[in-house]
Amino acid sequence: QVPLKPGRSLMDWIRLTKSGKDLTGLKGRLIEVTEDELAKHNKKEDCWICLRGFVYNVTPYMEYHPGGEDELMKAAGTDGTDLFDQVHRWVNYESMLKECLVGRMAVKPIMAPKGECHSPAVWCHEASATESLTDLVSFLTVNVCVFCACVCLLYSYDWFQTDSSITVVLYTKQKDMNEELVIVDCQDKRLRAEIIVDDHSYLVEVDLNHAVQEDLTVTIVERVRKVEIVLKKKENIHWKALGQPLESHNTFIRRTDRGLFYRKCKLVSKTEVTHDTKLFSFMLPKSTHLRVPTGHHVYLKQIVAGTEVVKPYTPVLPCLPLDFKEPPCHAGAQIHFMIKIYSCGLFTQALDHLQIGDSISLSSPEGNFKKSQIGSSEDLFLLAAGTGFTPMVKLLNLALTEVSCLRTVKLIFFNKTEGDILWRKQLEQLALKDERLELQLVLSQPAKDWVGKQGKISAPLLSEFVKRSRKDSKVLICICGPAPFTDQGVQYLKDLGYSQEEIHAFTA
Ligand code: FAD
Ligand code: NAP
Prior knowledge:
Bound molecules: flavin-adenine dinucleotide, NADP nicotinamide-adenine-dinucleotide phosphate
Radius of gyration: 25 Å
Strand order of the largest sheet: 19-18-22-15-16-21-20
CATH class of the largest domain: Alpha Beta
Helix content: 10-25%
Distance between the termini: 12 Å
CATH topology of the largest domain: Rossmann fold
Oligomer: single chain
Structural class: alpha+beta
Mean pLDDT: 88
Low-confidence stretches: 109-137
């Protein structure tokens, strides 16, 4: 992020888009844009960018872009879809830039060959290479499809019925199937069941033939690596078919090539954690089966001043007991967030105004932290600044309850003042109960009577606190906070001799 000029916040942008001003220079007309035409608009004062086949005039948005004008200019006059996906695929640009829409690209992107198994986004990505690469593209595409076809053989589904129920069975060949790898939603007769396989996923998505009741059950039969989803029929009639396949039905593709899927969740409680941070608990719909893995985040989406706004948040546990076990993902499970309300924050202000019973859209989880990273650690160091503490909550629980070889866990928690320290009492109690846990609080703006550590993240501070308990002990260092804090911390750790594999930085 770069510092934005005053009057260039997201709220200011939303106001401008609602002002009725002609932001495209085309007086509301939509045009077909050729590649040659697109390429001509490659200057700051005349900048068009193509995103997923639609062309936007982003010149008016330049000064409002949180990543800065230079980042936006990288895609000037070209198809910026890949670049966009790399940086913030979750941002709802359709809604944010709708007043900047110039039109569609004249030539449609080449589509993936239709079939039971296809990988459209991989195909489109490869097809955007220059014409001289066409042969290579076809070669890659064929091979990607062969790969997908092979993998699809490993994943399939079936269904059967009784008088009162429909059972959909997903067959996998995946070892260690667990609740976190299965996401099921059934909304308005639309059944969506996703099995996560590393950075890919297998999806069954159908428009059901008849209505079903709201609650569903999901059972993972580990022994035979299958997942059973039981839906209750609304009427006891015989179904001739399960339903109509939807676009991504029966596909195995990269997860990043699927759009984010949202479900509506109800706010059930809101409690104070500190003067500016609250614990929000949302109820998942009865028709959703979802568990957010440790170290992963979700996106929350709400309409603010008539525009959809999306922000990432990391779920926490409702509290920090020693022997906490996450309850099974039964119908109506809750999901908890610790969120700081910024006095001029666009999203958090709107969130704070939600009433109990109000709904918010919540995406499926994302993230690249793997449980296996922590599995064999002997020393775990958690460096958190402010709400960068949130991923550490589940990590602490996982480490202290499931990692048998763990000798030490040190949480080094950076805050401005004492009043900003999240769950301080709970952390101190946990450290008293479990002698492996050590808590190191560091304040950057302490009151005069603070006797603890003072300062900011620095190489000397890290060399004092981050030390292996034995010369050759296996270490994992996790770091999360404001982006510059995380970047600096990673650099200091590397300078101190820790390897890339020993460091995990939480980012979007
Ligand atoms: P914004 O409107 O974005 O502004 C917040 C404050 O920063 C304001 O004071 C604003 O003036 C200032 N600001 C913002 N952008 C700029 C800029 N470019 N230049 C100058 N000033 C600026 N937060 C939590 O509280 N809990 C979590 O669990 C959590 N998890 C996260 C997980 C991930 C992966 C990431 C990337 C972030 C997470 N965050 C979390 C942060 C969260 O996504 C939002 O950024 C945060 O809630 C602020 O949103 P907002 O719209 O209210 O604030
Ligand atoms: P904050 O209260 O502003 O800061 C917490 C501590 O970090 C303070 O001591 C502060 O010192 C210090 N700090 C701030 N910026 C720094 C910098 N550039 N270099 C060194 N130290 C710095 O923090 P916050 O408002 O809670 O913000 C938390 C951040 O964590 C947000 O940016 C959020 O997006 C991020 N976050 C990320 C994830 C994720 O990626 N998974 C999850 C949760 C939160 P000062 O006194 O100097 O300000």
